[in-house]
Amino acid sequence: MAGGFTTRRDSSANNVPVVGYQDSADAQDIILWAAVQVTETGNTDAQGNFRATNLPIIDASHDWVVDGGGVPRQRLIDGKDITAQDSGGTTLYPGTADGRTGVIPLYTDSGRTTSAANKQNVQVTYWTLRPVNVDAQGRLVVSMSGALPAGTNRIGAVVARGVNAGGAEIPLRVDDNGQLLIALSDVIANARTSSGTERLRIPDTIKYKKCTSAGDNTVWTPASGKSIVLMGIWAQSNIRGTSWTLPDTDMDIKMGSTVIGHMKLMGMLHFSDDGTTSKIAQYVHAGQFQIAQMDFGQGVKFPPDTPLIVSPDSAVVQVTAWGLEV
Q1: Are residues 182 and 110 in the same domain?
Q2: Minimal CA–CA distance to 118: which of 52, 51, 45?
Q3: Rounded to an integer, what distance in angstroms lies between the CA atom of residue 326 and that of residue 223?
Q4: Does residue 24 belong to any structural domain of this protein?
Q5: CA 255 to CA 258: how far, in whole Å?
Q6: What is the C-alpha to C-alpha distance for residues 78 and 93, in angstroms, rounded to an integer?
Q7: How far is it, in rounded angstroms, from Cα 24 to Cα 19?
Q8: Nearest 10 degrees: CA dihedral of 124, 125, 128, 133?
Q9: Checking DSSP bridges between strand 268-272 and strand 240-241, what pairing results, if any?
Q10: Measured in Å, how far apart are the chain's first and last C-alpha atoms?
Q11: Is 94:82 a contact under the CB 8 Å cutoff?
């Protein structure tokens, strides 16, 4: 048989295909071939047959036909495995090919009723086998083609690139031992969010507000289309009590209309015990202006155009917030 190949199936229920030489019983049970796809140009005969020169043609789609004994054993090699076109690029339709002889019948119609007879420069693509080479010790032999660049012993080079903080691409560098060098200025730290990753940033915006009235006080309004990344907020009460009850204030922290936190701040007693004298010794002075702080770590990013608002139930409160706008 052409090329020394044969194809057989075992007698088990698995019906395993085995390809090899028939020179010995053991050799044909070892598959030492690689499947490759080749394209060949040639002519068809008067019956529309194209004869492939790379043998055998193999079945890449793993379908079969039933043999004469009613057993599905023989591989089916057809249009699922072969493509063809004439010299003008018009599609031709393969019939059932003979993988051993390399005969591929071609047709001009999808119904395969009109043979592509006597066509010149037909281009046919199909699958065949190539032997896998090993040396005397059984190690795989790999050959490489092409010339090396002048003055070098390197087959090729891979240029890896990164992106710096400014968004520009830069080549990654290696030392004389091939170890990767990374400058701190080239490193971009990222943190994962629920929807992906975000670049870690340092705060560059501080906002201060002295609330002189109860109710909503806007601390931070982002620029149009921008989002506040809130990293922290600090507040101090400036409430002075003029009775024997220690004063305090309750304050909501809101992003737009949504409350994201709450602070309760105590004030200070500072008044005359009789309400009339101004003698220092007769003044009541107790408590302190309480401070509270909320830290959001690397920051919480809120929807665009959402302002930061604080809403104390009494004045006076001082608020400082920090973060950035993106």
Answers
A1: no
A2: 45
A3: 9
A4: yes
A5: 5
A6: 9
A7: 13
A8: 120
A9: parallel
A10: 73
A11: yes
55 in any annotated domain: yes
Q: For the CA atoms of the chain, what is the radius of gyration? A: 41
Strand, helix or coil at 17?
A: strand
The DSSP 8-state label assigned to residue 295 in this structure reads E
203's tokens:
């705060």
- The one-letter amino acid code at 2 reads A
Those residues whose C-beta lies under 8 Å from the C-beta of residue 35, and which sit 6 or more positions away, are: 58, 60, 127, 128, 129
Give the C-alpha distances (Å, rounded to integers) separating 161 from 149, 157, 182, 200: 22, 13, 11, 21
For the chain, the residue count is 326
The residue among 306 and 315 whose pLDDT is bigger is 306
Quote the distance between the C-alpha of residue 99 and its chain's center.
Answer: 42
- Tell whether pTM > 0.70: no
User: Each residue of 94-128: pLDDT tens digit?
Assistant: 999 998 899 999 999 999 999 999 999 999 999 99
The total of structural domains in the chain comes to 3
Q: Which tokens hold the place of 236?
A: 């101090």
Please report how many Cα atoms fall inside a 13 Å half-sphere around the Cα of residue 221, on the Cβ side: 3
Tens of pLDDT, residue by residue over 153-192, are 555 555 556 666 566 666 666 666 666 665 555 455 666 6
> Does 255 lie in the same domain as 291?
yes
- Mean of the pLDDT values across residues 49-56? 93
Indicate if 180 and 211 belong to the same structural domain.
Answer: no
Has residue 222 got a pLDDT over 90? yes
For residue 176, give its domain range.
161-188
The phi and psi torsions of 185 (rounded to 5 degrees) equal -70, -15
Q: Which residues contact 84 (CB under 8 A, 6 or more apart)?
A: 50, 91, 92, 93, 94, 104, 106, 122, 123, 124, 125
Whether residue 27 is predicted with pLDDT greater than 50 in this model: the reply is no
Mean pLDDT along residues 185-201: 64
Q: Do 127 and 94 sit in the same domain of this protein?
A: yes
Cβ neighbours of residue 43 under 8 Å, at least 6 residues apart?
Answer: 50, 118, 119, 120, 121, 122
Beta bridge partners of 12: none
214 and 182 in a common domain: no
131 cis-preceded (ω within 30 degrees of 0): no
